[in-house]
Structures are given as C-alpha cells and as structure tokens.
Amino acid sequence: MGLDIIEGKGQGLLVLLHGGPGTGKTLTAESIAEEQERPLYRVTCGDIGTEPKEVEQVTLSPSPGPVYMLIGSIVLLDEADVFLEERSFSDQKRNAIISIFLRILEYYDGILILTTNRIGSFDEAFKSRIQLALGYPTLDEEDRLKIWGNFVQMLPRTKDRVDMEDLQMNLPKLARDEINGREIRNIITMARHLAKFRKETLRYQHMRDALRSSQKFSEYLTQVKGVSDDDWARADKLR
C-alpha cells in the first residue's frame, strides 16, 4: 500500500537521470533492470506521441495495454525532454502534454526511469514527483580511461585480430581526448572496420586514426556554433 491518502497514487518509483550525452544514463537503467532481474522496455516520445490525446490514450490505456506497461517491467523513457520542459503561456499544446504527463506520474505504480540532457528546461512541478534524481557530470580523464579500458577488454570476444598489448599500453593517450562514452564506443567500432578494410591487426594506430576523424567533425561543429557542446548547453542553461 502506498503512503498517499488517495488510492492508487504514489506507489511507483520515479527516477530521473540527467547529464550530457554519453555519460552513462542509459547504461545505469540497463544495470538497474539487470540487478532487479526485470525486463527493461525502452520508449521515446515518438512511441508515445506528441499530441495531448496520444499521450493520454497510449499511456493510460486499459489492460493489456502497451507492452512497456506490463506488470513487473522497468520502463525507460529516454530523452524525456518533451514531457519535462517548463510550461509557458505561449504554447498551450505543450502545456496540455506536460499536465497529462504529470498526472500519469502521480498514478504510475511501477519503476519508471526518465533521462534528459536538458535539465535546465525542467518544469518545477516535476520536482515533487521524482523520488530519486541522479546527475551525471562530464567525464574526466580518469573516467575516460576506465571506459576505454572496459571496451578494449571486450575486443577479444569479437574474434578480430587484436594487438591487446599495444592497445593497453596506449590507453592513457586515448583517454586524454575530451569525448563521451558513446563517442568512445563509436571510435572503437570505426577502428575495427578500418583494420578489417586494411586487412591489419587492430592496434592503437587504428584507434588514433578513427579518433582524429571524429575530432574533425567535432571541431567543425564547434567552429560553426562558436562554442563547445558543453559551453553551448551551459549558456542556454540546459545543464
């Protein structure tokens, strides 16, 4: 039985994970589901809909309802910014969506995990609905070294030809570049394809080449915006 005096309210666990892209929010949700031995259903605003009627019908539909509302499951609403943004007088449609979502949170009785990288636009009404909020700071060099190391340790499972000694020796060099966890994974994937294309054993040089290619794109975006992604988000008070 929940502690709310109105039957059916306040019986769920609502968790908010906030931070920049690639800092571990989705991985945390997956780890929670694994630890609890429950299925994790990942949904986005595209699955739910962005019209007030769609939000109410999809999320509050009666049993058996959507598969992600099954009893015992953990629901991950990834990039929930559409539903969490602060209301305004100029956008009544958005206000209606947020109001409906607030009501949904009141009566949800399972484990719901929300992720956002725009906590600065968070509507204050959600604060009292969230039981646990965890912030994910930008990765530092030590964090990146651990992530690089974890991914490299997984490479032998791929059956690729890998020079593990060379990669492990150069991990500190790779960790110096300020990139997030998702970018690290993408660079390793790119390096694997590069090594296969060249018919070579995967080693540090392939990682370096893939990293340089990724950096060129990031540098171009920074040049276009005039600031880095973190500085831009800070200037817009998003996180």
UniProtKB/TrEMBL annotation:
Please indicate if the UniProt record lists Coiled coil as a keyword. Answer: no
Q: Which InterPro entries match?
A: AAA+_ATPase, AAA_lid_fung, ATPase_AAA_core, CbxX/CfxQ, P-loop_NTPase
Q: Which GO terms describe its molecular function?
A: ATP binding; ATP hydrolysis activity
Is-annotated flag, keyword Magnesium?
A: no
> Which residue ranges does the record assign to the AAA+ ATPase domain?
11-138
Protein keywords: ATP-binding, Nucleotide-binding
Judging by the UniProt lineage, the source's domain of life is: Eukaryota
What SMART domains does this protein's entry cite? AAA
> Which PANTHER family does the annotation name?
AAA+ ATPASE DOMAIN-CONTAINING PROTEIN, FAMILY ATPASE, PUTATIVE-RELATED
Provide the protein name: AAA+ ATPase domain-containing protein
